[in-house]
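Our preliminary data section would be incomplete without showing what the modeling component actually yields. Below, a chain of 198 amino acids is followed by its predicted structure, encoded as tokens that our downstream tools consume directly.
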Amino acid sequence: MSSMQIDNPDRGFTYKKEGPLDLRLDPGKGISAAERLKDITREELQGMLTENADEPYAAEIARTVVSEIKRGNAIETTTGLQQAVEKALSFIPEAERREAVKKSCQRTFQALRIDINSEFEVLFQFLEKLPDVLAEGGRVAILTFHSGEDRIVKQSFKQLKRAGVYREIAEEVIRPSAEECSINSRARSTKMRWAVKA
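Predicted structure:
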């Protein structure tokens, strides 16, 4: 996945630009995020927002989104979802609301994208097969972009080190410097972990 894909409004990855609510990495496979939302239950959406994005307002957002859809207001565009999140957070004091809506939109789009593309399942499969393609003493470094992904990588590396598959792993996560973040703002949320095969 590249920045060019994220910035393309036709792909529906960002709430900042009007576009179809798609979010698929491969638009030729599976269903779009808009289709996924059509039949989703409030409990299912709330669980998705919590599990995939640690969204603190998961209950409020899920209730509003499902309520809008049940009333016949299908959410088919990026701005449609952004407006639903904004409506869900209307109880937040005005001075804090703009920042809260921005962060909740980021997390909501992230949670849906992870679900639509089965990203956690793909990451589990990758981590499972990884030792088979590493030579003895081979090194791997993995960049993650949110806490859910980082937890999966951290647990896998620790488990495989205990099993003797890896001889060394990063004990602490490696974060980008302030200088790197100022050059590339998308580096802000990046975490890196590494491992060396036994």
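The chain is about 55% helix and 10% strand. The CA atoms of residues 127 and 156 lie 7 Å apart. Preliminary results of this kind motivate Aim 1 of the renewal.
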